[in-house]
């Protein structure tokens, strides 16, 4: 857990997609440690995690079950969070699915579902959040360095992540006059339990480590401080940017 304190995040209303598992669970923990009011959506029940957060922080995150591909339900959960927490200050679009696939095996239904989860949901969450942010706010869209690397094996996912960066830049310009900042955060290979269970074999881990400048594998907790920074007034004049947090694999500029 981060020891960094962002005083302006205390009492802020934060909404996180996929906030009960993987990177999202670390983000929920991180915002609650700052004293923020956190709303979380997830596709699966999360009673154990919610109880853990209540025990740890003395406050309970608002959990709502939602498949982010269901846009009407997604809107409904944002509106519920606004009603219960008295507004919306921060949206974190984190939920994603990096299911592996080859070009030749993809059909239209799978393509549409992958884009619905990995890009469409982000767009409409931004739309609803912007409608609810009456006093400005911060939107953080999780992208990935995978599209910058030209990684193979999940081309729909990398396509969506490139789209997230483009969307972030355009929405930053559109929403700037309302005082809403929009930035993207592109993690490297973060070793969540899902990654460890499905794809992080020793050969793949060694190959990726060779590409990193910093010789330490990324953990979900490594995404907390960068996200808090983008949400806080510490980055108040930063918008339309894509910030890579990857141990030094890709470069920008």
TrEMBL record:
MF terms (GO), sorted A to Z: 3-oxoacyl-[acyl-carrier-protein] reductase (NADPH) activity
The Ketoreductase domain, residue ranges: 12-202
Domain of life: Bacteria
Assigned EC number: 1.1.1.100
Listed InterPro entries: KR_dom (IPR057326), NAD(P)-bd_dom_sf (IPR036291), SDR_fam (IPR002347)
UniProt keyword list: Oxidoreductase
Family: Belongs to the short-chain dehydrogenases/reductases (SDR) family.
Protein's name according to its UniProt entry: 3-oxoacyl-[acyl-carrier-protein] reductase FabG
Species for this entry: Shimia marina
